[in-house]
Design brief:
Elements: H1 8-18, H2 21-25, H3 36-54, H4 58-64, E1 67-69, E2 74-76, H5 81-90, H6 109-143, H7 146-158, E3 161-166, E4 182-185, E5 191-200, E6 210-217, E7 230-235, E8 237-239, E9 245-248, E10 251-256, E11 268-280, H8 286-322, H9 346-378, H10 382-417, H11 429-437, H12 446-458, H13 464-480, H14 487-513, H15 516-550, H16 556-572, H17 575-584, H18 588-591
Parallel strand pairs: 3-6
Antiparallel strand pairs: 1-2, 4-5, 5-11, 6-7, 7-11, 8-9, 10-11
Length: 598
């Protein structure tokens, strides 16, 4: 059976030693009183719930899956899931970072992110039920009417109700401009919605008495394409004026997808047959409202792969220390045994360190991004809010695509450490691989994220936001450039930062002449950008570790952090040279291939 220990020490290192989050919170009125002891206590309890309640249900939930009653359209998730959700609600976890006005605890998003990392390590399929609710809360908080907020937010915050987002239809995935679901105004402020949705995560279950669906649809006079999409809130049960539940709304689960992974989550086909809903935000501007939820989901999906990378690494490391196979090439390391533990073999260490580096880099990036979100929402200085918001927008596709691609590499590597046993279900490793695979696909495939980064976030404003991140790199380089002990961490990011400017300009110029050049380079470009971001964060972590060691701190944690950073820069970061070369190869070798693809 697999194991999981919440990585509290590394979380505390990133939060308190690298980013000094409590100092940052002091500048934000809503979080000024949040101290390190509070954060640590909350995360310790969160870890207990993740490891003790959610994690034991992971393999059984995967085995059992969800069951649909086709007569009633009701879905029963795996055994124990409902009870675990009840414990989650009783513990107040849904309210952690929500607005106190609606019953929330008002803690920073940064703390909530750490909670969700642990939940994703423990049980990604289960975690998606409360995770989607938080996204629905964010969308309604930003764009809902006062009446909608009053009706739905307290119930979503408490966890009494859950939420979904209903975007995809059978004929359109990412291209939402093609969606056909209709919304007919009824003259009383409500709308009748009709259509079909697919791939709706947590779309039906028995955890709560109501489910709040956020649905994209078209008004009768809507323009074609994405400019004619509106957003509606459509509850499973209609809500009476006094807040009690009324009649069943005709928005039903008609089927469950049979999937490669996340079997414990109800991925529903939804039929909407004249269901009553209310408009969220302005007519024909539904994508802007839904993007609040979608961007939160993209950061959340990166967090899913971070969680799986961490738990896969923990299990592979434990196995590598215990499993004996062959002798070390440099001589016996365990002479009292028939063979040496496989952790002595260089390539096994490479696989383990790859997963460790990708987990620790992703954790630093997630904390960095959620701290920026806290600033964007709660800092009193308008310029700080604006700069933070722009940086989060730049980094969101990197979190979603780079971290999930890395999760694919890492979970596969960790399964490989187990050899044949990794392919067997009882060890749990093959499930981590299967569960992670969806993360590269949903919430916009990783190619879509790459196009968003290069086309919209970088070239769309002539690299202005990228330059803002470049300034952060430049500040670190200026600060540590003469420190010989930091040279192995600083020199690579200084060089890549300089190369990135030339690389971006070149791709942009080619794209101006032929847009396919952007499409051909985008995926490689995102990975280069991802390594620049990870490199910057690993340099900052190495900076802290070196200072602690120089001050006489003998905690082996800091030595381990330096060793991981050295591995990252020596074995993973150099991928950027190949990526820039393949990006520069251009679109012709892809597009001038009609004969090859005939």
């Amino acid at each position: 059976m697999p194991i999981y220990t919440p990585p509290l020490r590394d979380m505390q290192f990133v939060l308190h030693e690298v980013f000094k989050v409590t100092d940052e919170f002091k500048a934000m009125p809503a979080h000024a009183e949040v101290d390190a002891d509070t954060i640590n206590a909350v995360l310790e309890e969160a870890g207990k719930f993740a490891a003790g309640v959610a994690f034991p249900l992971n393999i059984s939930g995967d085995t059992e899956g969800c069951k649909l009653d086709t007569a009633t359209h009701e879905v029963t998730p795996p055994k124990g899931f409902k009870e675990a959700y009840r414990q989650y609600v009783e513990g107040g976890w849904p309210a952690l970072s929500c607005d106190p006005e609606y019953g929330g605890q008002g803690l920073p998003h940064t703390v909530n992110q750490c909670l969700y990392e642990m939940l994703n390590s423990a049980n990604q399929a289960w975690t998606m039920y409360p995770g989607l609710s938080h996204g629905a809360y964010e969308a309604l908080l930003a764009h809902g009417t006062d009446e909608q907020k009053k009706t739905y937010l307290p119930k979503l915050v408490s966890g009494e109700w859950t939420g979904t987002m209903c975007l995809t239809e059978p004929h359109c995935g990412t291209d939402l401009g093609m969606l056909r679901t209709k919304a007919e105004p009824q003259g009383d402020g409500t709308y009748k919605l009709t259509g079909n949705k697919i791939f709706i995560s947590a779309g039906e279950h028995d955890f709560t008495e109501n489910i709040v669906h956020l649905v994209l649809a078209r008004l009768p006079d809507a323009p074609k394409g994405s400019k004619g999409i509106s957003l509606f809130v459509v509850p499973k049960f209609k809500v009476n004026a006094d807040g009690s539940l009324g009649e069943r709304n005709p928005i039903f689960c008609t089927g469950l997808e049979h999937k490669m992974g996340i079997h414990g989550n109800a991925t529903a086909q939804i039929a909407i047959d004249g269901a009553t809903g209310t408009l969220v935000g302005e007519p024909n501007k539904g994508l802007a409202a839904m993007f609040v939820m979608m961007n939160a989901a993209r950061l959340g999906v990166g967090n899913q792969s971070l969680g799986l990378t961490e738990v896969a690494f923990q299990n592979a490391l434990a196995y590598a220390k215990d499993r004996i196979q062959m002798r070390s090439l440099s001589g016996k390391k365990a002479p009292d045994k028939e063979a040496d533990p496989i952790i002595v073999h260089p390539d096994v260490r490479k696989m383990l360190l790859t997963a460790k580096a990708y987990a620790e880099g992703a954790r630093a990036l997630q904390v960095f991004c959620t701290l920026l979100l806290d600033k964007a929402h709660g800092h009193p200085d308008e310029k700080v809010r604006k700069d933070s918001d722009e940086l989060v927008a730049l980094l969101t596709p990197i979190v979603k695509a780079f971290v999930t691609d890395n999760g694919h590499v890492a979970t596969n590597a960790c399964m490989q450490v187990f050899g044949g046993h990794g392919f067997i279900k009882e060890w749990g490793m093959e499930q981590f691989v299967r569960d992670n695979r969806i993360n590269m696909i949903y919430e916009g495939t990783n190619t879509i994220q790459s196009l968003d980064l290069l086309g919209r976030k970088v070239l769309g404003n002539n690299g202005a936001t990228l330059k803002k991140f470049g300034k952060l790199v430049g500040q670190l380089v200026a600060e540590e450039g003469v420190n010989e002990k930091m040279a192995e961490f600083i020199n690579p990011i200084a060089y890549l930062g300089d190369q990135m400017t030339k690389f971006t300009t070149e791709i942009g110029f080619r794209g101006f002449q032929n847009p396919d050049e952007v499409g051909a380079a985008a995926v490689d470009y995102l990975r280069v950008a991802g390594h620049l971001v990870f490199g910057y964060l690993f340099a900052r972590m190495a900076q802290v570790a070196l200072r602690e060691i120089a001050a006489g701190n003998t905690d082996p944690f800091y030595v381990a952090k330096l060793q991981t950073a050295r591995f990252y820069f020596a074995k993973l970061f150099p991928e950027t040279a190949t990526l820039m070369r393949t990006a520069r190869a251009g679109s012709k070798v892809l597009m001038d291939t009609d004969a090859a693809l005939a």
